[in-house]
């Protein structure tokens, strides 16, 4: 679904819709009200680029775990330097889809993908694709922080050492990545301490710094805040709103308000199918499919 106007107009539509609901005496349900609030705050809208080119283009993807089909004919454009949120109930295929983008599913025996996944016009699944390089270009953060049992410095330096960089370059890049992940000030005096001594939220930002160190172009995030408290969640969301200027981000989230707070585009998954996708504000305010409408209004979860 393409855009239907300037982002400012989106707000006006939201406001108008709210006013008309009120005028008609329609109750504003809880979910509706908080979604409105999240959409009105505007941060993702500030970064909305309606003409952003496609960074990754998936077409007619079917995915199978052995004989079980988990994804059905998914076509989704992932726009460059925009956040695309994948929402939908548990088991709807969001994580499976996310993992097809950097071939993480290759690690699962008997799994297979049909269809097309291209990044910058190159086939992600081509035989000649170097999967290690691909996963550097398309970094990933998981639900639970998974730092290596090494020092804070070594966690971030790891990928750079594999790439064979000189000591000075590694030091500079570690600092830069920690700064970009908004962690530098908290750890600069204890870079040699174990990463496992950090709080959960800090560990998750360390994992982000580790991914950023090898200069990815795309970041995949699989519910990166689901194990974090509200303050740590807020930090991750603020970071995403800054990182979108430089990276293409795809995030799985169970939390619709979170999608509204951070994503320019959203796709709604149900039972392995992509029911609808488009601008986040449109999808929440004017869903075109009845299943989307039911989900965003909280009638099933
Ligand atoms: N490694 C696996 N082997 C076999 N089936 C799997 C595997 N991982 C996921 N599935 C199945 O694929 C389907 C989609 O799961 P997936 O984890 O992608 O959904 P999801 O929307 O991300 O769910 P959640 O929000 O609970 O993480 C489910 O039926 C799940 O049981």
* Each distinct ligand: adenosine-5'-triphosphate
Radius of gyration: 20 Å
CATH class: Alpha Beta
Total beta-strand segments: 10
In the CATH classification, which architecture applies? Answer: 3-Layer(aba) Sandwich
Sheet with most strands: strand arrangement = 6-7-8-3-9-10
Low-pLDDT stretches: 1-14
What do we call the CATH topology? Rossmann fold
Note the beta-strand portion: 15-25%
**CATH homologous superfamily identity:** P-loop containing nucleotide triphosphate hydrolases
Q: First CA to last CA: what distance?
A: 24 Å
Q: State the order of secondary-structure elements, H for helix, E for strand.
A: HHHEEEHEEHEHHHHEHEHEEHH
> What is the approximate shape?
globular
Return the structural class.
alpha/beta
Overall mean pLDDT score?
A: 88
Number of domains: 1
Main beta sheet: strand number and arrangement? 6 strands, mixed
Helix share, percent? 40-55%
GO molecular function: ATP binding; ATP hydrolysis activity; phosphate transmembrane transporter activity
Keywords: ATP-binding, Hydrolase, Nucleotide-binding, Transport
Domain ABC transporter: 56-296
Enzyme class: hydrolase
């Amino acid at each position: 679904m393409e855009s239907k106007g300037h982002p400012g107009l989106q707000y006006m539509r939201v406001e108008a819709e709210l006013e008309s609901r009120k005028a008609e005496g329609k109750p504003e349900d809880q979910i509706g009200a908080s979604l409105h609030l999240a959409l009105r705050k505007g941060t993702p809208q500030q970064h909305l680029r309606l003409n952003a080119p496609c960074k990754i283009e998936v077409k007619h993807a079917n995915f199978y775990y052995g004989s079980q089909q988990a994804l059905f004919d998914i076509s989704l454009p992932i726009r460059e330097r925009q956040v695309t949120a994948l929402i939908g109930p548990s088991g709807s295929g969001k994580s499976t889809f996310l993992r097809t983008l950097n071939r993480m599913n290759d690690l699962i025996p008997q799994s297979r993908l049909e269809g097309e996944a291209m990044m910058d016009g190159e086939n992600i699944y081509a035989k000649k694709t170097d999967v290690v390089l691909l996963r550097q270009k398309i970094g990933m953060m998981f639900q639970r922080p998974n730092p290596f049992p090494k020092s804070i410095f070594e966690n971030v330096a790891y990928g750079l050492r594999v790439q064979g960089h000189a000591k000075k370059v590694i030091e500079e890049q570690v600092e830069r990545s920690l700064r970009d992940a908004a962690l530098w000030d908290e750890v600069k005096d204890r870079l040699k301490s174990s990463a496992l001594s950090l709080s959960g939220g800090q560990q998750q930002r360390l994992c982000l710094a580790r991914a950023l160190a090898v200069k990815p172009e795309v970041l995949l995030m699989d519910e990166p805040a689901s194990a974090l408290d509200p303050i740590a969640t807020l930090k991750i969301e603020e970071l995403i709103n800054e990182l979108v200027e430089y990276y293409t981000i795809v995030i799985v989230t169970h939390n619709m308000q979170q999608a509204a707070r951070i994503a320019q585009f959203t796709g709604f998954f149900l039972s392995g199918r992509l029911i609808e996708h488009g601008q986040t504000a449109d999808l929440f305010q004017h869903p075109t499919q009845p299943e989307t409408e039911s989900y965003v209004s909280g009638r099933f979860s």
